UniProtKB/TrEMBL annotation:
<keyword id="KW-0032">Aminotransferase</keyword>
<dbReference type="Pfam" id="PF00155">
    <property type="entry name" value="Aminotran_1_2"/>
</dbReference>
<feature type="domain" description="Aminotransferase class I/classII large">
    <location>
        <begin position="38"/>
        <end position="192"/>
    </location>
</feature>
<protein>
    <submittedName>
        <fullName>Aminopeptidase</fullName>
    </submittedName>
</protein>
<keyword id="KW-0378">Hydrolase</keyword>
<keyword id="KW-0645">Protease</keyword>
<dbReference type="InterPro" id="IPR015424">
    <property type="entry name" value="PyrdxlP-dep_Trfase"/>
</dbReference>
<keyword id="KW-0031">Aminopeptidase</keyword>
<dbReference type="InterPro" id="IPR015421">
    <property type="entry name" value="PyrdxlP-dep_Trfase_major"/>
</dbReference>
<dbReference type="InterPro" id="IPR015422">
    <property type="entry name" value="PyrdxlP-dep_Trfase_small"/>
</dbReference>
<dbReference type="GO" id="GO:0004177">
    <property type="term" value="F:aminopeptidase activity"/>
</dbReference>
<dbReference type="InterPro" id="IPR004839">
    <property type="entry name" value="Aminotransferase_I/II_large"/>
</dbReference>
<dbReference type="InterPro" id="IPR050596">
    <property type="entry name" value="AspAT/PAT-like"/>
</dbReference>
<comment type="similarity">
    <text>Belongs to the class-I pyridoxal-phosphate-dependent aminotransferase family.</text>
</comment>
<keyword id="KW-0808">Transferase</keyword>
<keyword id="KW-0663">Pyridoxal phosphate</keyword>
């Protein structure tokens, strides 16, 4: 019998949010927003000069040539991706698994979205040979593939694809005439930035790649929606940028004035912001590593987390223990672990993985403490894993996995 999705469990209307930082808002950032609360003039569609200039400077500091005229800003990554998808046109290809919010944008546009397997060593990018085969199959069946979505520092897998893998994938996509959108939301959450080599697809193929970044990844709270995109510095990129602005205007996806002020400040990376970025990334790295050890000790599988505030676990090796608890697919697993851990643990089906797989995304923010004071203590501690509230949370987490063996 075909299983139906219960009310409240659908991945479109109730898709899981991105992993939160679990930390209080930076006081300096709150002060900027508060100071702009009386602003009465609206931000123009695509962002005003200050916000676009700050985004361009942000990418310049990371070695990516950018001009303010090529930047578009919107009230969150979802409407910005929606506008970019509509501007590019055609069917969409994306890795499996992928961020939960990608497919709904294609669905709302009436576009077909095709999942392509990822290579063994990482998520966030498609296997190049599988991509070529999928493109040819879709075209043989009358489809019109034009766009490939990638997330090199990835949600949900928390991996960072090696540059050689990224290049192979992008080379395959460009050879088939696909435009690429590189979601680099998690770039500034690398766990070991001095050891992890990240190369943007836009550095490899600057004329065929648009870069997207949700500022909620590292800079602003999710409750202050803001995202930026960098279109190629080409005639096609200029046309894509213009079409995107038209669409953002049509759907009213403009950044709120006070939020634009805060985003501009954050993208400038003043000392308080830079310190918070480094401290938060280091904290989540240590907690994620501890959670990863607990997952592996239980007999489950997970790639080592390299970025973000999460990890992606495969509990397939624990299928017998889970079956004894009436957990046989990822929906069951989501329900079971969410109840057992006391926090949402979205199953792999939310990210395009097979329903029969026993995969789950685990966020690290709930392990930092239950109150703002505890979370700030975790942030400032030299040994956060030894704090009682972190140790207790990790103990509960470890026990939940150990009992499945």
């Amino acid at each position: 019998m075909q299983r139906t999705v219960e009310e409240g469990r659908g991945p479109v209307r109730y898709g899981p949010p991105a992993p939160a930082p679990g930390l209080p808002v930076l006081p300096e950032l709150s002060a900027v927003l508060a100071a702009a609360a009386g602003r009465t003039h609206a931000e123009p569609p695509g962002g005003g000069p200050a916000l676009r200039g700050a985004a361009a400077a942000y990418w310049w500091r990371r070695g990516l040539q950018t001009e303010a005229r090529s930047v578009a800003a919107a009230s969150g990554a979802q409407p910005l991706l929606f506008a970019l998808m509509a501007a590019v046109g055609g069917d969409v290809l994306l890795p499996r698994p992928c961020p939960a919010w990608w497919v709904p944008q294609a669905t709302m546009l009436g576009r077909a979205a095709y999942h392509v397997p990822t290579p063994a060593e990482c998520g966030g990018v498609t296997d190049p040979f599988a991509l070529l085969e999928t493109v040819r199959r879709v075209r043989d069946e009358g489809g019109d593939p034009r766009l490939l979505l990638l997330s090199v520092p990835d949600d949900p897998t928390a991996t960072v694809a090696p540059p050689e893998v990224v290049h192979e994938v992008c080379e395959a996509a460009v050879s088939e005439g696909l435009h690429i959108i590189s979601d680099e939301t998690w770039l500034d959450t690398l766990h070991r930035p001095q050891e992890t080599v990240f190369v943007s697809p836009a550095e490899m193929f600057p004329g065929q790649v648009t870069v997207l970044a949700d500022l909620a990844g590292a800079y602003t709270p999710a409750s202050w929606p803001a995202a930026v995109a960098r279109c190629p510095l080409t005639a096609y990129g200029a046309a894509l940028h213009a079409r995107t602005l038209d669409l953002l205007t049509a759907i009213g996806a403009v950044v709120a004035g006070p939020v634009a002020e805060a985003a501009t400040y954050a993208l400038g990376e003043p000392e308080p912001v830079a310190v918070r970025l480094r401290s938060a990334a280091a904290l989540h790295a240590r907690v994620a590593a501890a959670a990863h050890r607990a997952v592996l000790t239980s007999g489950a599988l997970a790639r080592p987390p390299q970025a973000g505030r999460h990890l992606y676990a495969d509990l397939g090796p624990l299928r017998a223990g889970l079956a004894a608890r009436r957990v046989t697919d990822s929906m069951d697993l989501e329900d079971y672990l969410s109840e057992r851990l006391g926090v949402p643990a979205p199953g792999g089906h939310r990210f395009g993985d097979e329903m029969g797989g026993l995969r789950v995304r685990i966020a690290t923010a709930p392990l930092l403490g239950a109150t703002p004071q505890e979370r700030l203590e975790s942030l400032s501690s030299g040994q956060p894993l030894e704090l009682p509230h972190v140790a207790d949370a990790l103990s509960t987490f470890t026990t939940a996995f150990d009992e499945l063996r």
